[in-house]
Structures are given as C-alpha cells and as structure tokens.
TrEMBL record:
Lineage, opening ranks: Bacteria, Pseudomonadati, Pseudomonadota, Gammaproteobacteria, Vibrionales
UniProt keyword annotation of Cytoplasm present: yes
Keywords: Amino-acid biosynthesis, Cytoplasm, Diaminopimelate biosynthesis, Lyase, Lysine biosynthesis, Schiff base
Species assigned in the record: Photobacterium proteolyticum
Protein name: 4-hydroxy-tetrahydrodipicolinate synthase
Membrane-crossing residue ranges in chain numbering: none
C-alpha cells in the first residue's frame, strides 16, 4: 500500500492538508454575464465543506472568458477571505499570455497554480519540458501539473514529468488520463510529487496506486458528500481492509453521469435542478442542448443523497 504521509514541501499548511479540490463552475446569468452573487454562494459552500477551490479550470469555462472577466473572478473570490486554499488555472497555448497571467496573480493571496499540458498544439517531450520549465521558473507558488489528454490532444510525457519533479515549484500532479495503469506509470516516474486523481469515479483505484486526493467536478453538486467520499477512500487505503468499498460503484456511476455531455454542461444542469444555481447558462462553444436527458443525473443525485443520509 502506498504511503500517503508526505513531509510538507512548503510552509502553506492548509495547502498540504487539502485532499479535495473542487474545480469550481462559473455561474452565468441568462445574458452570459458572470453571476457574482451565485459565485459567492458557491465558494462559501465549498469553504464550509473544507474543500480547496480551483478557479478558472476547464470546468470553470476559463478559456471562454475574456481576460478582464478572469481577473474579475480572481479579485472577487480573493476578496472573500475564505479559509480554504485557492488554486488558479493557467491554460491556453500562448506562453507570453500565461506569463502575463502569472504576473497579474502575484498581487493576490492564492495558494497554487494548475498547469495543464498546452492544448491544441500537441507539443512533444522537448517542447513540454521547455513550456513547463518556463512557467515553473516564473511561478511564486507551488504548481500542480495537469495531464488530461482528452482535452489537450496529447498526453504528458512521463520522462518529462520525472525531470520536472526536481523543480522547487513542482508540487503535485492532477492525473486525468482515465486509466489506473497510466496513473501508476506517472506516479512511479515522479514519486516525490503529490498525485491527485482527476476523475471522480476512479478515486478508489487511483488511491490504491498512490493518489493522495481528488480534483473534482462532482464536488460542485455534492460538496459535503464528495468530501466524505474522499475521506472514506483515504481511510480505507490506510486500513487493513483490502475489500472494495460498497460506495465505489455508486461514485463511479455518479462520476460518469457528469460526463454524459461535455463538462460542465451536465453538472450545471444538475445544480440548476437542485436549486443551487438559477441558470445553467454556458459560454460558447458549449450549449445546453447537447444534454439529451436529465435522467442519469437525477438518478445519481438520488443515490448520492441516499448514501449521505445513510451514515
């Protein structure tokens, strides 16, 4: 069984203790403007559940927003003085813009950055190493390197990850390839880094291979239940009980339901049904008509609520 006890690499204790990060949605009003009142409400819910908040990831539709809108979200959430750590996404494929983004963020009390493989360009190993090295050098925060080939078009190179692990600002990895076998290869290529599962339904399998937590879409819809799911999964990994937990299938199905259409279409539809957001508005190129039915989401919601009530 992997050892999940890691000496803090940074003085930020709350960062080191966070095992669940919610990739927060960006709520929009029907006219597609940012709904800041609801954003505050959602951030407070995550704070109350003790979940770290990832702002401006792909779930937050960051690349569909203007730079001014992205900056406004950072200012707004940072002004809330939340007790949980904040991580901010660094996306796209234009290095100069990303370096400018890091320069902007230096003025705000954030705790970490999320650095995905550059999208669209499909860089190879040498290009990936140079890209990440430039961003790591420019960062003043711990960085989580993000592997999500389904979105970026190319996988993170394992040997590059091993080389980047020695950088003082390399802190963690979000692994979202969808394969426990792939996860294991990345984990063994950079064992000094902390590894987080990037697929809600695969958490139990990823923890068994070394993951220390989850970066979650599901926690938008179920903040407290997802936190419980992570705690129980980690507790099980640290126990002598090697049987599969009874909740594994439930969370696999719940996680799958949130990807029955492009993320974050399903989770916004569910949150509107829950009454937690007034509008499930999206930014192009995503449209709600892509979601053909609510039934899988409603079934998942019922199952998670029943599981939560059963404790």
């Amino acid at each position: 069984m992997p050892n999940h006890t890691t000496a803090p690499a940074y003085g930020n204790e709350r960062l080191q203790q966070t095992t669940l990060w919610t990739a927060l949605i960006t709520p929009f009003l029907p006219d597609e403007s940012i709904d800041f009142a609801t954003l505050s409400q959602l951030a407070k819910e995550q704070d109350a559940a003790g979940n770290g908040i990832l702002l401006l990831g792909s779930t937050g539709e960051a690349l569909a927003m203007t730079q001014d809108e992205q900056q406004a979200i950072i200012r707004h959430v940072c002004d809330m003085s939340l007790s949980v750590p904040l991580m901010v996404g660094v996306g796209g494929f234009q290095l100069h813009q990303q370096l400018q983004w890091l320069d902007f963020l230096k003025n705000y009390p954030i705790d970490a950055l999320l650095l995905p493989v550059p999208l669209y360009a499909k860089p190879g190993a040498t290009s990936q190493q140079k890209w990440f090295s430039r961003l790591l050098d420019a960062s003043k925060w711990p960085c989580m390197i993000y592997n999500v080939p389904s979105r970026t078009g190319v996988a993170l190179d394992e040997q590059v990850l091993g080389l980047l692990a020695d950088h003082p600002n390399a802190w963690a990895v979000k692994e979202a390839s969808g394969s426990a076998e792939n996860f294991s290869r990345y984990y063994h290529s950079a064992p000094s880094l902390k590894f987080f599962c990037g697929d809600d339904g695969l958490l139990v399998d990823f923890i068994a291979k070394g993951a220390c937590g989850l970066v979650s879409v599901a926690a938008n819809a179920w903040p407290e239940a997802t936190a419980r799911y992570v705690r129980q999964s980690l507790d099980l990994a640290g126990s002598s009980n090697q049987s599969e937990p009874s909740f594994k299938t439930l969370w696999q199905q719940a996680g799958n339901s949130l990807f029955c259409a492009a993320n974050p279409i399903p989770v916004k539809a569910l949150m509107k049904h829950q009454g937690r957001i007034a509008s499930a508005e999206l930014r192009p190129p995503l449209y709600s008509e892509e979601l053909s039915e609510l039934a899988p989401l409603l079934e998942a919601d019922t199952a998670v609520n029943q599981w939560t009530a059963s404790r």
